[in-house]
Amino acid sequence: MRRDSLSNVQARRIALAAQGFADKPPANADLRALGKVLGRIALLQIDSVNVVSRAHYLPLYSRLGPYDRELLHRAAGQAPRRVFEYWGHVASYVRIDLQPSLRFRMAGAGRFL
């Protein structure tokens, strides 16, 4: 193996750590902890399929551990909002700080209706 290359195991560990899976779950899963997760993953796909739980709750659980689902609803619906709903490729909760970067797509969306 070359010295400047990664093994599959090393690459996998780096990718998982970058997404927050190597972090210790917080002692208190509050809005601050939710914000930290959103800072890493930027969006949550909203999915109404309810086999185990709705899909947008699972990434938070995998990073925060047991948490109050109302945190996400507060982050989306109460000031100061931390996420907004947007249809990019799929319906998603997107970090609010990314909204200005998506305005050009939002403005153009009406042309296709």
Walk me through the structure:
This protein is an alpha+beta fold and 113 residues long. 42% of the residues lie in helices and 12% in strands. It is built from 5 helices and 3 strands; from the N terminus they run H-H-E-H-H-E-E-H. Strands 1-3-2 form a 3-stranded antiparallel β-sheet. A hairpin with a 3-residue loop joins strand 2 and strand 3 (91-95). The longest helix is centred in the N-terminal third of the chain and has 11 residues, at 8-18. The chain is globular. The termini are far apart. The mean pLDDT is 88.
Compact summary:
The chain has 113 residues and is of the alpha+beta class. It contains 5 helices and 3 strands, in the order ααβααββα. 42% of the residues lie in helices and 12% in strands.
- What is the molecular shape? globular
Low-confidence stretches: none
Helix content: 40-55%
Could you tell me the strand content as a percent range? 5-15%
Instruction: Describe the main β-sheet briefly.
Output: 3 strands, antiparallel
Please list the strands of the largest sheet in the order they lie side by side. Answer: 1-3-2
Q: For the terminal residues, how far apart are their CA atoms? A: 53 Å
Q: What is the C-alpha radius of gyration, as a whole number of Å?
A: 17 Å
Q: Structural class, from helix and strand content?
A: alpha+beta
Average pLDDT score? 88
SSE series: HHEHHEEH
Please give the number of β-strands: 3
